[in-house]
Specification:
alpha/beta; Rossmann fold; N-(1-d-carboxylethyl)-l-norvaline Dehydrogenase, domain 2; 2 domains; 8 strands; binds acetoacetyl-coenzyme A; binds nicotinamide-adenine-dinucleotide
């Protein structure tokens, strides 16, 4: 069954991107944010990103207007009641996500609706167990920036039904045009199990004074052909999110390579969250 109505909870870096690609694919999109200020911020991210697509000749101005008209903003979770799929994309914080899944279970009317999380690391089974319909819960893990990155990780739990998994895959592949890979429900899934220890190792190199941030990043850009060096990428992902993912991985595996380095912890405590706060390993305008 084709998905026509999608709800996104959280219109930050990821939620705004998921909303944009969904609206571009013709879906009716409702985004739930916390308050008026965060609604304005979510709207402005989507306007900026689609404006840039028009400037680059990738989107017609009329198509952009139609795309923007397909997106509605709300601060009430109850406004997602008629959605066929909801993707939760709020801050990487388990208690907050559990609360959202519990409430979604109460408000979503369609018993066949899919409840998905875009979490980078938190085991989906825990979110599923916060609902009375764990068979309908999966992880749909998009990558940043969503309009550019071709991948979605699909995480099913031992409780997800094959129908939910198949419908979620069809949505990501056929409707959004993403490539789907499948992972079992282990913290970090596939990509972040590999990517996050690499980012943490780069922070340790920097923290230990082995090299400057610039040289570490240039090393991986020119020496390994990565589009961004690891410290630029950590700033891009968000240092709060990077630390939160490291915490979840460390909690699951108890291995030192996942422990967030003290410098990362201090930077997050200081409010240096990377690009989104204007300063991380680098400064941004
Ligand atoms: N939204 C939409 N399009 C964007 C964009 C955005 N936010 N940022 C860049 N683009 C598009 C540009 O329009 C441009 O498109 P064209 O080539 O068609 O003109 C293209 O991407 C390249 O952009 P730029 O030339 O401006 O910049 P760039 O060459 O430096 O590329 C980048 C930017 C695509 C972000 C590239 O640096 C990159 O791929 N970086 C690595 C990203 C990455 O690793 N993401 C994964 C993060 S980890 C994650 O997501 C998982 C998690 O759980 C933490
Ligand atoms: P972000 O900080 O940019 O955005 C989070 C948004 O959630 C904010 O706009 C915030 O106002 C909103 N929010 C918080 N609590 C809410 C609530 N109760 N209801 C509605 N909105 C709420 O974070 P992000 O980078 O977009 O990350 C979101 C999720 O996506 C996290 O689980 C993260 O791990 C995951 N993720 C992040 C990346 C990345 O590169 N940043 C990549 C893939 C997945």
């Amino acid at each position: 069954m084709t998905i026509h109505r999608i709800g996104i909870v959280g219109g930050g870096l990821m939620g705004s991107g998921i909303a944009e690609v969904s609206a571009k694919a013709g879906l009716d999109v409702t985004i739930r944010e916390i308050d008026d200020a965060t609604v304005v911020a979510a709207r402005s991210k989507i306007e900026k990103s689609t404006g840039r697509a028009v400037d680059k000749g990738k989107l017609e101005p009329e198509a952009r207007e139609e795309l923007l008209e397909r997106i509605t903003y709300t601060t009430a979770l109850a406004d997602l009641a008629d959605r066929q799929l909801v993707v939760e994309a709020i801050t990487e914080n388990e208690p907050l996500k559990l609360e959202i899944f519990k409430t979604l279970d109460d408000v979503i009317e369609d018993e066949n609706a899919i409840l998905a999380s875009n979490t980078s690391s938190i085991p989906i089974t825990r979110l599923a167990k916060a609902t009375g319909r764990p068979e309908s819960v999966v992880g749909l893990h998009f990558f940043n920036p969503v309009p550019v990155m071709g991948l979605v990780e699909l995480i099913s739990t031992v409780l997800s039904s094959p129908e939910t998994e198949a419908r979620a895959e069809k949505f990501a592949c056929d409707q959004l045009g993403k490539t789907v890979i499948h992972a079992k429900d282990r913290a970090g899934f596939i990509v972040n199990m590999l990517l996050v220890p690499y980012l943490l190792e780069a922070i340790r190199l920097y923290e230990n004074g082995v090299a400057t941030a610039d040289d570490i990043d240039t090393g991986m850009r020119l020496g390994a052909n990565h589009p961004m060096g690891p410290l630029t990428l950590a700033d891009f992902v968000g240092l709060d999110t990077t630390k939160a993912v490291a915490d979840v991985l460390y909690d699951e595996f108890k291995q030192s390579q996942y422990a967030p380095p003290p410098l990362l912890v201090r930077m997050v405590e200081a409010g240096l969250l990377g690009r989104k706060s204007g300063r991380g390993f680098y400064e941004y305008q």
